[in-house]
Please model this.
Amino acid sequence: MFYQLTYDLSETERSGVSALLSAADHEFVPPLSARRGTTQKDLLTAAAPADGIAAYFAQLAGQACVLAMEESRVCGFLSFIPDHLLDALTPPLRCDYVSTIVVDPACRGRGITAEMYRTLFSARPGHSAATRTWSQNHAHLAILRRLGFALALTLADDRGPGIDTVYYIRTADA
Ligand SMILES: CC(C)(COP(=O)(O)OP(=O)(O)OC[C@H]1O[C@@H](n2cnc3c(N)ncnc32)[C@H](O)[C@@H]1OP(=O)(O)O)[C@@H](O)C(=O)NCCC(=O)NCCS
Model:
C-alpha cells in the first residue's frame, strides 16, 4: 500500500473514488445521496438532491485527496478542503477540513485511515485539521482520538433522535 496526496485526480483515480463513494453511500448517516454537498449543515431537514450521489461526488472531486493505493487501485480516500474557514465553530477556524473518508470494506481494520490522516499531517505542516462525523461512528471516533483530535462541538440530535453531529479539531502543534 502507498499513500499520495493529490490536488487533481486522474481519470483512473476519479473512477476509483467514485466507486468507493457509491458503494459506501448508505453507511453514512444520513446517506451521501441524500445530501447536497460535503459541507451541508441542514442534514436532517433539507430535501435530497434529484440526482442522488452525483452532487456530492461533483463537490468532492474538486477537493484535495489523500489516496491509499495498491498498484493502480484506489483502496481508500480522504478528501479535504485546504485552508477552509470552518464557520460552524465560534470563532471560525481556518483549517484543512476533512470532508469524506471511505476505505474499501475488504481493506478495513488495517490502519489505512490512520495512515491517510498521517499523510495529510506530514504534507501540511503548520495547518490545523478538522472534521465532523456522527456520534455512533465508533470506528472513526476511535481513530480521531488516537491521532490527537479533540471534540470541539456537539450538535445534539442533528441527524436524528440520539444521533449527534460532532466536530473534531487537531491544532497545528498537536
Ligand atoms: C471509518 C473507516 C473510514 C475506517 O477505516 P479503516 O481504514 O478501517 O480504519 P483504521 O484501520 O485506520 O482504524 C479502525 C479503528 O477503528 C476501530 N474500530 C472499528 N470498529 C469499531 C467499533 N465499532 N467501535 C470502536 N472501534 C472500532 C478498530 O479497532 C481500529 O482501531 P485499532 O487500530 O486501534 O484497532 C471505514 O470503516 C469506512 O470507510 N467506513 C464507512 C464510511 C465512514 O464512516 N467514513 C467516516 C465518516 S466521514
The chain has a mean pLDDT of 94.
